[in-house]
Design goal:
heterodimer; A: about 375 residues; Cytochrome-c3 Hydrogenase, chain B; about 15% strand; B: about 150 residues; alpha+beta; 3-stranded antiparallel sheet; 5 strands; binds iron/sulfur cluster
Chain lengths: ~375, ~150
């Protein structure tokens, strides 16, 4: 637990507005910091600048029409959100998915996870003052975007999954490009380690900075790489396997201290694990069998009732909760997003740290603001 | 001891990092000088929607059924059509889209019963007002044919 610091004399505290247009908050996040000199006495995140009402939108359109919205919540891992929504509705309405489609979705989802982690890697190091790794990470990420662009037709907001499959089949070139990319990414890791992981400045700015204790993480509902960095091996892909994840051999990287350095290491290791999943999927993918179950009606009406479906997005446990009253529109559509819980642990973690570390901690937690505001 | 060791190791890590940077200076360039050189578009690229020109009829096949209009989540499409004769099928006369609201989700393309919709391959679009994004696809097609 963070050690409590003595409450300062009131007249010495002043309030600093971090954001909403601060370059290192990656989106419109505002954090009200009460400062005593360089030390943070109280941090108060203010949300809602990017609110678009996605949950409400879900209630006034059909299930199929909500699909494009899902990739606009967490725009860095849009395909994972697409995938999760498709899985949730498939579970709800009992739709079968061809095996090939499952493999395609898994490969694309893991590629998207890598691209999200790469972007985080680049921007986080840039927050700490290193500009060069950012360019290398974006170079790699650009490769993934090219690969995904080839099959989905877009670079960020994919809308690729459909209930019962995906909207386009993949071709040999896609598989070839994916294989080449994985080899390329593996060869780049050593550069990343030489450039960033071993860098003494980086280590000093992240080691023992922003320590999240497992108990704290549990209280706030922190999930994803942030939780795994505290040493708790929780990953929905292993705990409640969905899609094909129970058939792949991969590990859950964990940290020990729960500091920013551990979160960094966990994410880097996760990219390698995603590569392993993709390789296995590429090897086992059936040649034929169709990529879409065409019997799904466009005005899909799931039976009366409710469904809760959790999956692992790039930032942690994400879930859709849908209630149907037997009409083609969901009666209620709620989305549990990981960044919301991950951000609020800051209230505890930031207390007693220095302002300069606040940037490092905020970056290491990897929040995506539109996902929180949704 | 730990202090000096850290200084030496830290200094070495900076040299290592610098080596990566210098080596990368001579690697092949990864950027493209955009307006002068252009990359190939992906085969699946999604531009705004447009009506396909069928070789057998020399025109589109839109029957103004309105399926795309109903499928669109963002109310982008407004299609109008007439029946030239009592017994002949309906034919579209106007097909308006407001591209500024389109999310390029592809639901309209997938819904069309006559496969008359497709994605265009235009990506250099500009306009001076919101109305520039409202186009009548049928008028546009007529124009490009004449
Ligand atoms: S692509 Fe989607 S948003 Fe755009 S016109 Fe078609 S259905 Fe509407
Ligand atoms: S669905 Fe196809 S045929 Fe029907 S109105 Fe739209 S473009 Fe025309």
């Amino acid at each position: 637990m963070p050690k409590p610091i003595a409450p300062p004399a009131v007249d010495r505290v002043y309030t600093l507005n971090l954001g909403p247009q601060h370059p290192s908050t990656h989106g419109v996040l505002r954090v009200l910091l009460d400062l005593d000199g360089e030390f943070i006495v109280k941090a108060d995140p203010v949300l809602g600048y990017g609110h678009r009402g996605h949950e409400k939108m879900g209630e006034n359109r059909t299930y199929k029409q909500f699909m494009p919205n899902t990739s606009r919540m967490d725009y860095l891992s849009g395909l994972l959100f697409n995938h999760g929504f498709a899985l949730a509705v498939e579970k709800f309405a009992g739709i079968d998915v061809p095996l090939r489609a499952k493999y395609i979705r898994t490969i694309c989802a893991e590629l998207n996870r890598i691209s999200s982690h790469l972007l985080w890697f680049g921007t986080y190091v840039m927050d700490l003052g290193g500009f060069t790794p950012f360019l290398y990470a974006f170079d790699d990420r650009e490769n993934i975007l090219d690969i995904l662009d080839r099959v989905t037709g877009s670079r960020l907001t994919y809308s690729y999954c459909r209930f019962g499959g995906v909207c386009q089949d993949v071709d040999e070139t896609f598989l070839e490009m994916t294989k080449t990319f994985i080899d390329r990414l593996r060869s780049r890791f050593s550069d990343y380690h030489n450039l960033v992981t071993k860098n003494i400045i980086f280590i000093h700015r992240t080691r023992n900075v922003g320590v999240i204790h497992p108990e704290q993480a549990r209280q706030f509902g922190v999930t994803g790489p942030n939780l795994r960095a505290c040493g708790i091996p929780f990953d929905v892909r292993k705990m409640e396997p969905y899609e094909l994840y129970d058939q792949f051999d991969f590990e859950i990287p964990t940290g020990t201290n729960g500091d920013a350095l551990d979160r960094y290491n966990v994410r880097l290791e996760e990219m390698e694990q995603s590569c392993r999943i993709i390789e296995q999927a590429l090897a086992r993918m059936p040649k034929g069998g169709g990529y879409l179950n065409r019997s799904v009606s466009s005005r899909l009406t799931p039976p009366k009732g409710e469904v809760y479906f959790a999956f692992e997005s790039a930032r942690g446990l994400t879930a859709y909760y849908l209630v149907s009253d037997g009409s083609p529109h969901p009666y209620r559509c709620h989305i549990r997003v990981p960044s919301f819980s991950n951000l609020h642990v800051l209230v505890d973690v930031l207390r007693g740290t220095m302002v300069a570390d606040a940037i490092s901690i905020l970056g290491s937690i990897d929040v995506v603001i539109p996902e929180i505001d949704r | 001891m730990g202090y000096w060791k850290e200084i030496v190791e830290g200094g070495w890590s900076l040299v290592e990092g610098m080596r990566v940077t210098v080596r990368r200076l001579w690697r092949p360039v990864v950027t493209v000088q955009y307006p002068r050189k252009q990359l190939n578009l992906s085969p699946a690229y999604r531009g705004h929607i447009e009506l396909r020109l069928f070789a057998d009829t020399g025109t589109h096949k839109c029957i103004a059924c309105g399926a795309c209009q109903r499928a669109c989540p963002s109310h982008v499409i407004r299609v109008q059509g007439i029946k030239p004769h009592m017994k002949s099928p309906k034919k579209a006369t106007h097909y308006f889209i407001d591209f500024s609201r389109c999310s390029l989700c592809g639901l309209c393309v997938e819904t069309c019963p006559t496969q008359t919709l497709q994605y265009s391959r235009e990506y250099e679009l500009e306009g001076d007002s919101r109305w520039s994004s409202v186009v009548d696809l049928i008028a546009r097609q007529e124009q490009s044919r004449s």
